[in-house]
Amino acid sequence: MKFVRIRAIAKKETIQIWRDPLSLAIAFLMPLIQLFIYGYAITFDVNNISTVVYDRDRSVESRELVSEFRESGYFTIVAYVESYDEIDTQIGSDNAKVALIIPERFASDIKTGRPVQVGVIIDGSDSNTATIAEGYITGISLLFSQRISGAKFAPLIDIRSRVWYNPELKSRNFIIPGLIVVIMAVIVALLTSLTIAREWERGTMEQLISTPVKPAELVIGKLIPYFAIGFIDLILAIVTGVFWFGVPIYGSALLLIALSCIFLFGGVCFGILISIKAKGSQAVASQMALLSSFLPAILLSGFMFAISNMPKPLQIITHIIPARYFVTISKGIFMKGSSLEILWVETLLLSLFGAIVFAAAIRSFRKRID
Length: 370
What we know:
The protein is mainly alpha-helical.
């Protein structure tokens, strides 16, 4: 293996990328665009729940209850209705997610100490929002009852909880670290999946085959520029996540970058392997790259859905998804300040994946024209 030949292949690939505006756009613009779109679009925070009010009492107390909901910051009063039919119309047309129904004699029953039933209708088409909204409503109602009655209800069990690692419960703090993993997995695999297939499609592979370049030298020379692009994208994504989205990083940034390089190496090698297996078709290579990187990284890495909640067969399958281990690493360093002593298993498995895929790529490439 000669470094001169590797450098020549890397230089040729770099020039080819530089002269291809589409590749440059995919390499540098797409990661940032995805980070901004998904960073703002994906959120599990539930605020400003659109609410309609059917106030049948129209008393000072009923207006105070509505005010409690409005001032909580969780509910936005979008309309006052006069009938149940209007409630059905508002929720059915998706103008409102919650309807608050205050009965007649609401104020008089409160003053006389009689129990009052306030009706609440919740749109269950979004189960996550419905569940959270129900919890908010219960809390607001309890606080309102205590304030009106002037007495505090002492619970039998006094639970005092403390949230570690993300005390403000901001979904962005755990979405951005996982999102960086998904973007890196997709971009690197997509770019490198085209490199060998492009050579066959353009008819330039025959020239490379006729040279003394060995398969290992060709693979290494091809992956160096894409590894560099992935590294630049990684730095941009981390900087954007920390300084633009305000996501704190409690662990070592150097450790995160070092372990990210292991993941990037496995990703570019996997893209090269796909490109070799695509048999000279860039369309097939790109589709294979998207299917084998984007969907597993989104669905089976633990980024969006907890692996422990998945069926057992899927839990077993997730062990062959490298993004699973890098999501653990990214979230651990960002949110928990985890060290290599804690993340060594994930690091070892990512290294093993990179070595296996690198060896498979070299073994799969043959310097012959079928």
